[in-house]
Amino acid sequence: MTHPTVGCLIPAFNEAARIGGVLRAVIGHPLIDEVLVVDDGSSDATVRVAEGHGARVIAMPRNGGKTAAVAAGVAALRCDLLLMLDADLTGLDAAALDQLLGPVLRGEADVAISLRGNAPLAWRLIGLDYISGERVLPRAQLAGRVGDLCALPRFGLEVFLNRIWMAEGARVAIIDWPGVASPAKAHKRGLVAGARGDAAMLADIFRTISPAEALRQIATLRNRRLRARAGGPRAARHEHARHGRP
């Protein structure tokens, strides 16, 4: 029996200090067939660190933003399922990856999205981070839309994906990741530069969708969320076996 292949796509920009932790969790994971880092014109050692951990790397000639990096990665991969991860995650481990991948591999959900432990309080209260960058989805959802991705603002990807999921009536598994976090931009860049980065991201989101559509996305995805089955050691071993791995 043929099981879905999984490609892990990690867009990265100046993440040499953080990407190693993510790669240690994904390289060699028995459910992941390929790891691709798309370096978005970094000026630090991100490419060298990623290659040193054994990832395949595409180096973009200039910084074009996350959406352009993802478009390049989607075009380069040939997997059935995309596992999309941000490059700056902390606390990521094999068990967390099992949890995110499990509902889709088991056929319980069509797509999955993370709810990190340090997601904004409002998102944790409603049980959904609608702009989370950690997702599992069929590659086919984006493979025919690379041109559309390239036309998006630099940070319009997540809400664009939400629009696809809503149009296709996707079953959405929301995975609680209390031990996984993504550092704030202010922590990485400093207070002023971080605030500017957050403002630019929000501006791109609302160039992609209106505030009213953002609220509709939150309500619709929240209503379609599924209660994911716990993924303990026995479930993880089951998933590894289904995927044809020891």
Keywords:
single chain; alpha/beta; 246 residues; 8 strands; 12 helices; eight-stranded mixed β-sheet
Describe this structure in words.
This protein is an alpha/beta fold and 246 residues long. Helix content is 46%, strand content 16%. The chain has twelve helices and eight strands. The protein has helices spanning 19-26, 46-52, 66-76, 94-105, 121-126, 140-143, 146-151, 157-168, 185-189, 191-208, 211-223, 233-242, and strands at 6-12, 34-39, 56-59, 81-84, 111-116, 135-138, 172-177, 225-226. An eight-stranded mixed sheet has the order 3-2-1-4-6-5-7-8, sandwiched between helices. Helix 8 (157-168) packs across helix 11. The protein is globular. The model is unreliable at 232-240 (pLDDT under 50).
- Which overall shape is indicated by the principal axes computed on the Cα atoms? globular
Q: How many beta-strand elements?
A: 8
Mean pLDDT: 87
Radius of gyration (Å): 17 Å
- Strand portion, in percent? 15-25%
The low-pLDDT segments are: 232-240
Our count of helices gives 12
SSE arrangement, N to C: EHEHEHEHEHEHHHEHHHEH
